[in-house]
Design brief:
Distance between the termini: 16 Å
Number of domains: 2
Largest sheet: 2 strands, antiparallel
Structural class: mainly alpha
Strand order of the largest sheet: 1-2
Number of strands: 2
Strand content: 5-15%
């Protein structure tokens, strides 16, 4: 694929394809290092392909990073770079994961409360409030995903 004039989404797909090929080449290199008779694959050719793929992936990653830093979009009435939005998406996923775990207390959590007769074990925040926050975060995640999808298939790499 000519990587000169491609959209972000195409670059991400191409990067993934090259990473899969790189993993296969690395596996073949390892598998064919020792052999009986004639080797299944040429070590030198595989090594050259691995070096070439690694360099191409690195170049593509750098272009994607530069594009993400340099491309601004409007989100929640704020002008933000794609890089910042991608980081925000990661933050949201982390928040959802933490909040979702609140409902799965471990046995250690209960022992640490040193429950005595008459004491009631209760959450600090009503579960409905936590569910509302998870729902709000999921909505924001969906909006960011849609914005990124649109941007990835309309903006060209720098």
């Amino acid at each position: 694929m000519n990587q000169e004039n491609i959209k972000i989404g195409e670059a991400l797909a191409e990067k993934k394809k090259m990473q899969v090929r790189l993993a296969k080449c690395n596996g073949l290199l390892k598998k064919s290092y020792y052999y009986k008779g004639k080797p299944d694959f040429d070590y030198g050719k595989l090594s050259e392909e691995i070096i070439s793929l690694t360099a191409n992936i690195r170049e593509l990653k750098l272009r994607i990073i530069n594009t993400n830093i340099s491309t601004n979009v409007i989100y929640n009435e704020k002008d933000m770079s794609l890089a910042e939005i991608i980081i925000r998406l990661g933050d949201i996923r982390s928040q959802i994961a933490v909040l979702s775990e609140l409902y799965k207390p471990t046995i250690d959590d209960f022992y640490s409360l040193r429950h005595t007769e008459g004491d009631e074990i209760k959450p600090q925040v009503p579960p409905d409030d936590v569910e509302k926050e998870i729902s709000r975060l999921n909505q924001e995640k969906t909006e960011i995903d849609a914005l990124l999808q649109h941007t990835n298939w309309t903006k060209f790499l720098i």
